[in-house]
Specification:
60s Ribosomal Protein L30, Chain: A, 4-stranded mixed β-sheet, 2-methylcitrate dehydratase PrpD, 22 helices, 2 domains, 6 strands, alpha+beta
């Protein structure tokens, strides 16, 4: 047993056999399908385009920048593709870390795999291993880290990406440990960037940092061993000076978030199976999804229309409502972080789709008219302690209520493969031609058996994003 988490995680990355349960590899493959699907329209987002415009002249390389026709050095491709993966906020969530894990891990792994000529199975292996370390680090600093305003996708994500890249490069335990440590020096990102272009950039920065950290470690660059739990480690600097008081006073633990870095049983349980990933049903902040699921459930069950509604009351954990900070959104980015917009969409249109998140769509008067009817009621409890409660009062005096503990797409209500492919089809429609869409789909289905990622990335390398101009 190694009590130092940097060394423990480095050893686990280096020494754990690539003998994962079939269910873990299937879950990893679904994460690749989902992330690549949302990256196709994400590559057309202004944030992703601006990132590409910035880095495109910094040097050619082996790795495709999705939808641009350009190939860049692996870190820059990961920066562009990570931004694209998170640009629409349609990518998955991972509860142990309170982070968007796949939007960081998949772009980092793909860019590095193109550089190294890695197989599809090696990429799935790197994903499972990287996700485990991403989760373990997240459990060591959360829930306080994120509750105090750090964007864990950017901070914990960079460390998880370094672990995945160290695994893909087959670093030894000391090198892998140094990669993890180096990534802590690149871990940054504030939740105050939500609703701006900087928010999806965080995923790109974390993906890029993972490749850089692992590459530096492979070259022999060393780093400190106290960067996670030392006197000036991540726990005390990015949780707070009261870290030990908070850790010792925990009375309720969710998602394994104990404010302790697990070093005795790093790989048990395997988090990709025990916690799972939350695939998104809607392309907006996941904190709104329980309420949106509840609205659609009540509409389907009771058959009322938007014209019948007098008031909507949403009781939800304060952390969820804090994420949904725009009560009167004015553009598409703010609309993604608005409870009012998500709920009103489900009331009026009985859906929430990609095309609902343009600046023009967010300002539709028929949607905005419902904002005064939607009332927030923050509850000072964690999400596992309190489900989102939705109460709808109709003009005829009837009242309907429901409570949603876990959204559609979570481990409690998981997507089947057919739902992943339906989401894929919706994402790529109009951007990939029928032939390209089918070829990419077939390649993704064969991911565990690919000798290299060349066939997969060949379709994504084409400049399909220009078709949306």
């Amino acid at each position: 047993m190694e009590p130092n988490p940097v060394l423990a995680y480095g050893r686990w990355i280096a020494e754990t056999p690539a003998e994962w349960p079939a269910a873990a590899l299937e879950a990893a493959q679904k994460a690749f399908i989902d992330t690549i699907a949302v990256s196709v329209p994400g590559a057309c987002d202004p944030a992703a385009r601006l990132v590409f415009a910035t880095v495109k002249d910094w040097g050619e390389g082996p790795s495709a920048a999705i939808g641009t026709g350009a190939r860049l050095a692996a870190p820059w491709a990961a920066l562009v593709n990570g931004t694209a993966a998170h640009a629409l906020d349609f990518d998955d969530n991972f509860d142990p870390a309170k982070a968007h894990a796949s939007a960081v891990l998949v772009p980092a792994i793909l860019a590095l795999a193109e550089q190294e000529g890695s197989s599809g199975m090696a990429c799935l292996d790197a994903y499972v291993a990287g996700l485990q370390i991403l989760g373990r680090v997240g459990q060591g600093v959360n829930p306080t880290h994120r509750n105090r305003g750090w964007h864990a996708t950017a901070t914990v994500g960079a460390i998880g990406a370094a672990a995945a890249c160290a695994r893909l490069l087959r670093l030894d335990e000391r090198q892998a440990g140094h990669a993890i440590s180096l990534a802590t020096s690149m871990a940054a990102g504030f939740m105050s960037q939500f609703g701006t272009m900087a928010k999806p950039l965080h995923a790109g920065l974390a993906a890029k940092s993972g490749i850089v950290a692992a590459g530096l470690a492979r070259s022999g660059l060393t780093a400190g061993l106290g960067t996670l739990d030392g006197v000036r480690g991540m726990n005390r600097l990015m949780v707070g000076a009261d870290y030990e008081h908070l850790r010792d006073g925990l009375s309720h633990v969710e998602h394994g978030q104990t404010l302790r870095f697990e070093t005795r049983h790093v790989g048990e349980p395997l988090l990709i199976l025990s916690s799972g990933l939350k695939a998104k049903r809607f392309p907006n902040c996941g904190s709104a999804h329980r309420a949106q699921d509840g609205i659609l459930e009540l509409k389907q069950r009771h058959g009322f229309g938007p014209e019948d509604v007098e008031a909507v009351h949403v009781r939800a954990p304060v952390s969820h409502l804090d994420n949904l900070m725009y009560a009167d959104p004015r553009d598409s980015a703010q609309g993604k972080f608005s409870l009012e917009y998500g709920v009103a969409l489900c009331l009026v249109t009985a859906d929430c789709r990609l095309d609902d998140f343009s600046d023009e769509a967010v300002m539709r008067e028929e949607i905005r008219a419902f904002y005064p009817l939607i009332h927030r009621h923050p509850v000072d409890k964690a999400e596992g302690e309190f489900p989102t409660e939705i109460e709808i009062r109709l003009k005829d005096g009837r009242t309907f209520e429901t409570a949603v503990a876990m959204p559609k797409g979570s481990i409690a209500a998981p997507f089947g493969m057919e739902e992943y492919w339906a989401k894929y089809d919706g994402c790529v429609a109009g951007l990939l031609g029928p032939g390209e869409s089918e070829r990419l789909r077939e390649t993704l289905a064969q991911l565990p058996r690919l000798a290299s990622m060349a066939a997969l990335m060949a379709v994504l390398a084409e400049p399909f994003a220009s078709q949306s101009e």
